[in-house]
Design a protein that fits this description.
Elements: H1 2-8, E1 14-17, H2 56-65, E2 70-75, H3 81-92, E3 99-102, H4 107-119, E4 128-131, H5 135-144, E5 148-150, H6 153-157
Length: 163
Amino acid sequence: MNRVWELLNEADTVVLFDVDGTLTSYNYGEYHAHHELDFTPQFRDVNIYADCKRLLPMYNYIQKHGTDRIFCISKEPHGHEQWKSEMLGRLYGIPADHCFYTLGYDGKPVIAQRIIDDRFPGLSPEKVVCIDDSDTALEMYMKQTRFRTAHPMIFMEHITELV
């Protein structure tokens, strides 16, 4: 993972972040890690992102790297896209037009490739890092793109460098 960390700290690297479990805590519930209403109709009306707190290692990294080359790709089956985008702007300064959503993990590699093709044509795939806490998503990125991948725990491993 040391090479991935070096790559993440190169100014021209494009970073594609997952949101839930990566840029926000996954502790949305009162008594459980996940929100108790998930997959129920009333969950669509609950803004679980209103009270999210910034994750300092991620914030410090994003502030250092700048948001021009930072994007978010999130699985969002609940219709919370606007709330997520507002939270990402409020906590990290990530512009809403840098936030992309898909119904399932299978859409993430397709969206990632489209972002690079549209905004950074000709960029070497070795200069793109996809950060996700889901093994399923990381495996899809690895199999369907030539992009690099990292789990968000890499920021914990290098936390002293982010202060």
